[in-house]
Amino acid sequence: MKILVVGSGGREHALAWKFLQSSQVERVVCVPGNGGTASLSRCENLALKVDDFEGIGDFALKAGINLVVIGPEVPLAQGITDYLQSKGLKVFGPSKAGAQIEASKAWAKSIMQEADIPTANSVVFNKAAPAKSYIKENGVPIVIKADGLAAGKGVTVATDLNQAVEAVEAIFNGQFGSAGEFVVVEECLTGQEVSVLALTDGLTIKPLLPAQDHKRIGEGDTGENTGGMGAYAPTPIATVNLMERVQKQVLDRTINALRANKIDYRGILYAGLMVTPTGEFKVLEFNCRFGDPETQVILPLLETPLEELMLACIEQRLEQIPPIEWKQKAAATVVAASGGYPAAYEKGKVITGIAEAEAAGATVFHAGTQLNQELITDGGRVLNVTAIGENFEQALQLAYAGMEKINFDGMYYRRDIGYRVISNG
What we know:
Helix content is 31%, strand content 25%. The chain has 425 residues and is α+β, with helices and mostly antiparallel strands. It has four domains: 2-93, Rossmann fold (3-Layer(aba) Sandwich), CATH 3.40.50.20; 127-180, Dna Ligase, domain 1 (2-Layer Sandwich), CATH 3.30.1490; 192-320, 2-Layer Sandwich (D-amino Acid Aminotransferase, Chain A, domain 1); 330-423, Alpha-Beta Complex (Glycinamide Ribonucleotide Synthetase, Chain A, domain 4). The radius of gyration is 20 Å and the shape is globular. GO terms for molecular function: ATP binding; metal ion binding; phosphoribosylamine-glycine ligase activity. Residues 109-315 form the ATP-grasp domain. Its cofactor is Mg(2+); Mn(2+).
């Protein structure tokens, strides 16, 4: 079997790595891939852009690709699945219509309200003045969101009025480009975030292991939002009871609502939840693809061949497959970021210590790297140092032991990933 993975991040490296563990997979091609995918045996990078639909389609047809997997949200929102399916290719990832669930927070809110899915109260604005008036009337804390795709950075949890007003102005002044045509102003929920990624064929929906991400740049979950600074799975806060309720009140209702809107959604549906101390939950947002860095802790625990699950979704036979099998262990990942991230940062720094980190028991997934003569940094989030353990304490110990072996100029990482679960290890 030949698989093509679209994307260049840590998520895509983890996908390629997982596929290559299967005896059914002969070859993986990553478009454009990164320094990590370039280093995998039976894997190659193809220097095309993720929005070059024609180039990707032509290559896939000529190379006899059996499965195309779309990693990032942007090409999904642009309609890559629709285009490649029109060429007769099997594609894992929702259509352009389905990808609206991430591409427009306002549209996703309308689906949640229509389906009676628990979520925060919110109002959508297309001008700054009424949004600012609403904020002043309702007070803080309050959440300000750019409506469209903003690479995980379009959300501000404002704790004072000036911060809230500045966030609205920044969005409408074009900080996030076309993502800033509308602003969603939302009540601020408190508790712990949980990422529930689920596989669906449009009829049946099956959750993967629940994970918890650390989105803030600073230790103690402080500072600016990022694409994610570390994660662990399965998060203990997502109990069996809670996951049963999520299945009925979120996953099933969402798929039914999409079908009612004549959207045949096949791929990953990712629900970001806020779980309160009393065990109640609300949906913060939906994503239309694998989470990053959640994928880097979920896939190492997966025993069922990933390509079999994806083909079952594409061929609409998910209900018929056996229960998904998992390692009864814990996984954790820590992100090594470029100095200055999530603001301006430099690229081109030489990376050392990957082999030593893996010899210490970690698996290193590359996010923003390039392999030329040397391995160099090529993004804000550079590496995901991942490990599996009998418990969270062991997994985190191995991940941090691996991180200590790695070095590049300006490297930054949080030293408190998993602080909520260490005592539960």
